[in-house]
């Protein structure tokens, strides 16, 4: 037992060092490896400590899971990474539900009449949080994958329904603690909590998906922590607490980046009907100036400083490698190039950072809004690739706008702004963007990767 606890201590330390490494791209790979090593030690110690009678099913599960994980890791596209993260969050919650359920069934069938209060309380917490996480994550996956509409589904009296479901879940949890003799109580708790998970996420629009994914990640950690108390497993308690705490911190940072509170994200339904937005015809009519790669190449040919603003459109078109080639070409001509990264650009926290890291863009070129916004007036050309709401100046002026007060990237203060976008379609907030019709803005309509590739060719031929 002492050796097992030492192994758990080592594993916990590796988890902490792993999280620390993941905080910076340069140390991310090492941090990931440290976390994986910690998990390997924790699993090995647990299997040896529990005196497993037969390892056949365990080995079969590990082989099947490893095969599925390897295939997914090899085949998943970077644009689908948010969906993958949502699924992994859901699987964590689902595993907690199943493990806690198996433990309560075993406890009820045990000849020992008295079931510990810690077991029933932790089981209730696991079932509630795990079910909400699992089904909420599936809805998030469906929205990101396009299976479920990305727009908020605002059911009538949804807040009241959610409150009733939460009270019912807590009531069933209390019954499970006070009268743990029936496993049907746990089953009902999971069913009610599953409905709550669906109804909590379905009204949230695509613009809030980075926050939702971060929050669900925290939920999965809390569910794992509760399951650790069910199993009396110290390393699971610690690991779950680390994931839960880091997820809450990240969620708080995401909300701060959007200038919104967490309740506003969860209950606000951003992306629904917007009564206060000006009609797109009034914003764009007669003022949008289309351009071509050749014209943009002429602008860039004499530019001393360029800022590139990536958005989800860059991810969809897989333009990150073309953007890297454009960056290298501009720098070879003496142009300084930086990347302006908004924390909630894309579909998950750090989405743009991950894409640019995949293309080997140096991390020191990535600037947060607080660092680059004061210097946009010195930028000769800003190139916006598929971003919309995070560069919409309406956030600074229209108090009734759904993005009012959200910190944005001040690209409109650049000398010239080139927006690469397929069309004038709005972002997830469903409002027009006056930037597209600004005097210093040019619209380069087309696929992000294709336009950047043509821009590179035009620059080389200039």
Describe the structure using short key phrases.
61% helix, 6 strands, alpha/beta, 2 domains, 6% strand, 462 residues, Rossmann fold, 6-stranded parallel β-sheet
What's the structural blueprint in terms of helices and strands?
Layout: H1 2-22, H2 25-49, H3 56-75, H4 81-109, H5 117-145, H6 158-178, H7 183-201, H8 209-231, H9 234-258, H10 262-268, H11 280-284, H12 293-301, E1 305-310, H13 312-317, H14 320-332, E2 336-340, H15 351-358, E3 366-367, H16 369-372, E4 381-385, H17 394-397, E5 416-421, E6 441-445, H18 448-461
Parallel strand pairs: 1-2, 1-4, 2-3, 4-5, 5-6
Largest sheet: 6 strands, parallel
Principal-axes geometry comes out as elongated
Number of helices: 18
Give the low-pLDDT segments. Answer: 270-276
> How does the helix and strand content classify structurally?
alpha/beta
Strand order of the largest sheet: 3-2-1-4-5-6
The helical percent reads 55-70%
Q: Span from first to last CA?
A: 72 Å
């Amino acid at each position: 037992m002492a050796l097992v606890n030492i192994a758990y201590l080592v594993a916990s330390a590796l988890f902490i060092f792993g999280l620390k490494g993941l905080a910076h791209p340069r140390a991310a790979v090492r941090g990931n490896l440290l976390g994986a090593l910690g998990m390997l030690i924790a699993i090995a110690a647990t299997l040896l400590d529990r005196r497993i009678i037969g390892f056949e099913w365990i080995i079969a599960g590990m082989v099947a899971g490893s095969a599925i994980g390897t295939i997914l890791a090899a085949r998943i596209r970077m644009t689908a990474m948010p969906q993958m993260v949502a699924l992994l969050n859901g699987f964590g919650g689902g595993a907690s539900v199943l493990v806690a359920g198996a433990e309560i069934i075993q406890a009820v069938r045990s000849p020992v009449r008295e079931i510990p209060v810690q077991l029933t309380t932790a089981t209730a917490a696991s079932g509630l949080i795990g079910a909400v996480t699992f089904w909420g994550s599936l809805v998030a996956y469906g929205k990101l994958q396009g299976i479920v509409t990305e727009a908020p589904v605002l059911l009538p009296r949804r807040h009241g329904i959610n409150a009733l479901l939460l009270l019912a879940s807590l009531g069933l949890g209390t019954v499970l603690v006070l009268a743990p003799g029936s496993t049907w109580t746990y089953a009902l708790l999971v069913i009610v909590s599953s409905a709550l998970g669906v109804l909590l996420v379905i009204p949230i629009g695509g613009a809030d998906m980075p926050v939702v994914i971060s929050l669900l990640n925290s939920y999965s950690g809390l569910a794992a922590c509760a399951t650790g108390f069910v199993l009396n497993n110290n390393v699971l308690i610690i690991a779950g607490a680390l994931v839960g705490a880091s997820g809450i911190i990240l969620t708080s940072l995401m909300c701060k980046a959007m200038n919104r509170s967490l309740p506003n994200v969860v209950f606000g339904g951003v992306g629904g009907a917007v009564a206060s937005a000006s009609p797109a015809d009034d914003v764009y009519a007669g003022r949008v100036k289309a351009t071509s790669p050749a014209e943009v190449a002429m602008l860039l040919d004499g530019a001393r400083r360029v800022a590139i603003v990536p958005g989800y459109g860059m991810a969809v078109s897989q333009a990150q490698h073309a953007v890297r080639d454009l960056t290298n070409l501009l720098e070879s001509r003496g142009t300084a190039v930086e990347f302006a990264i908004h924390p909630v650009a894309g579909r998950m926290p750090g989405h743009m950072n991950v894409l640019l890291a995949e293309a080997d863009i140096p991390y020191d070129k990535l600037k947060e809004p607080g660092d680059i916004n004061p210097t946009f007036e010195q930028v000769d050309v800003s190139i916006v690739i598929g971003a919309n709401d995070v560069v919409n100046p309406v956030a600074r002026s229209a108090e009734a706008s759904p993005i009012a007060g959200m910190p944005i990237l001040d690209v409109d203060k650049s000398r010239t702004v080139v927006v690469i976008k397929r069309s004038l379609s709005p972002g997830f907030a469903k409002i027009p963007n006056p930037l597209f019709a600004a005097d210093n803005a040019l619209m380069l309509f087309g696929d992000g990767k294709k336009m950047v590739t043509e821009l590179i060719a035009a620059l080389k031929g200039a």
